[in-house]
Design a protein that fits this description.
The structure is a homodimer. By secondary structure, chain A is of the alpha/beta class. The first copy, chain A, has three domains: 44 residues, lambda repressor-like DNA-binding domains (434 Repressor (Amino-terminal Domain), Orthogonal Bundle), CATH 1.10.260; 134 residues, Response regulator (Rossmann fold, 3-Layer(aba) Sandwich); 136 residues, 3-Layer(aba) Sandwich (Rossmann fold), CATH 3.40.50.2300. Helices cover 46% and strands 16% of the residues of chain A. Chain A is elongated. The model of chain A has no long low-confidence stretch (mean pLDDT 91). At the A-B interface, helix 4, helix 5, strand 2, helix 6 and helix 12 of A face helix 4, helix 5, strand 2, helix 6 and helix 12 of B. Strand 2 of chain A pairs antiparallel with strand 2 of chain B, so a sheet runs across the interface. Chain B binds a DNA duplex through helix 2 and helix 4.
Amino acid sequence: MKKERATIHDISKALGIDSSTVSRALNDSPRVSQKTKGLIIKKAKELGYQRNSLASNLRTNKTHTIAVVIPRISRYFFSTVIAGIEETAHEAGYNVLICQSLDSIDREKKIMSTLISNRVDGIIISISMETTDYKHLEAYQSLEKPIIFFDRPCFLKNCSNITIDNVHASFMATEHLISQGCTRIAHLSGSQKIELYRQRQKGYMAALKKHNLEANAKHIFESGLSEEDGMASAKKILELKGIDGVVSANDTAAISAMKYFKTQGVKVPEDIAVVGFNNDPISAIIEPSLTTIHQPAFEIGKMASRTLLEQMTDNLKEQQISSTLLDSELIIRSSSQKK
Amino acid sequence: MKKERATIHDISKALGIDSSTVSRALNDSPRVSQKTKGLIIKKAKELGYQRNSLASNLRTNKTHTIAVVIPRISRYFFSTVIAGIEETAHEAGYNVLICQSLDSIDREKKIMSTLISNRVDGIIISISMETTDYKHLEAYQSLEKPIIFFDRPCFLKNCSNITIDNVHASFMATEHLISQGCTRIAHLSGSQKIELYRQRQKGYMAALKKHNLEANAKHIFESGLSEEDGMASAKKILELKGIDGVVSANDTAAISAMKYFKTQGVKVPEDIAVVGFNNDPISAIIEPSLTTIHQPAFEIGKMASRTLLEQMTDNLKEQQISSTLLDSELIIRSSSQKK
DNA sequence: CTGTTAGCGCGTTCAC
DNA sequence: GTGAACGCGCTAACAG
């Protein structure tokens, strides 16, 4: 019952041709005549030969596999990015390995370690919320293999970033609230150790400044942006009194803040308008009135994959390092125009 | 700049211990003393050693990788299943390779071929809509490695299935409409070559029979269940006159049928109530009134992964072949009670 | 408990 | 254009 798999040696013996020639033929080397190539390929099919990539990988130190490291695959944004990555990678003959960090630095470190062991040819990653130093990423880089960051920017040496223009997006979001008549706008911000949240806060500040609104440090609530954080910040916002708009650096906090406002009898968006980032279809069900920044997930995935493929195949790495900013879009589901 | 990676030989030389002992120590074999183990592990860290899985894989013919083959990752159902698979697999030290068939048999065949080349240790698959014969799957089986089917049942020899009880779910859906007062219920059915759709049709028929409703072949619309198919079937349903309920074998067709009904001034669910299968958050946005069968995606993923892991590690394959039916749930978002 | 031997299946030198 | 020989890094099998 146990079928032994055919190897190049089997077809070498069957044909009386050396196995090295068989190998070359199967790799379509130009150094083998069309005649013998034909013969070999025919015999290969006949024997049901399937290349053993394991052996090939060991020899060439390439796996034709790229890894995607993300916080959570079931978030619509990330699964859509992966769809984009997969499409591009698949066309180029690459496999895609999925790894979830669950926003834990420990898991991310473990993942990097197995990716090094497995010698994946490249990595596309949205770093975990807890990631503030990059030794585990640099260890991978020392294999001379490329890393691409997306969604959450990271200016590691020799790495490309594929993100939206977060400063601009946050600016747009804030300006939208101002155009709706908001004058005292709070910001649910994330840790300022994280570049992403620095950028989003920067955009918020810039919009206030442009419109001559007071930038009050008390209006900025830095937190982990979890559901509980959103609740807690919302509570503080109400205690402050007079806040009429909120720009949240993510959707989780935005939605839980909105929930809290409602439980306190505060109307959204009439009394306080809220803008969030990057929200899923599912948050649209929970809070249909949330205005949000939409990221072009599929395009981000394709671009990340394309960039990675380039860096894997060419040797001119140095020149190619880039930061690509894709367009985002403000999606307005309900008006909050102040009288 | 190019750092050479340390191998077991480097740490073997550095310590004057044979490389095979080093290998055993690093694999935590009980046949190495704690003392030397400690020494070796310490030295390994010192040299920044990271196992080369490629070599290990070649030797053991195992990859510690399982593949998930699905139609589309960006569908919420599938990405959630993957989350479940990943959780279980990761705990057990396995990697997860993602492959999208895009419901194309040709792509599925290619995928199977590369999975054979890559010697993944097991496969979890929801077969494509176009898959009606299974040679490409049997080729993989001949490597003596297990395949688990989920979502779309497939009774290939020696393979386990993890699905909901489709007959029962479809029965529930149909009975729900009957309880709402529907008496002429149509069925948007899929190809009867596909087991999944046979089962769903069976449940529909059974419910009609139980409640002494006429089972009319004209009320069954077999199609590819695409958006266009949904439209076309909806049109035919209206031409039939008198239909007051529709059980659709998937959500895509259900939603497009509902859309068509509305364009024709038919009220949903008042005039015609519709029940779909397996719908995403996103379809709930498009059609908030759609009643639907909900599958426990995360649980399905965990169960599939667990079953696969068992079959990969044990040798008693024969005994373990099983069909696991997980519970599904009817989610009712709006009443369609007939007067 | 540890060392020795012998490959896993392929790709890459070299020769010719 | 083709063949012979070697080795990628690791581990199974067998000694001792």
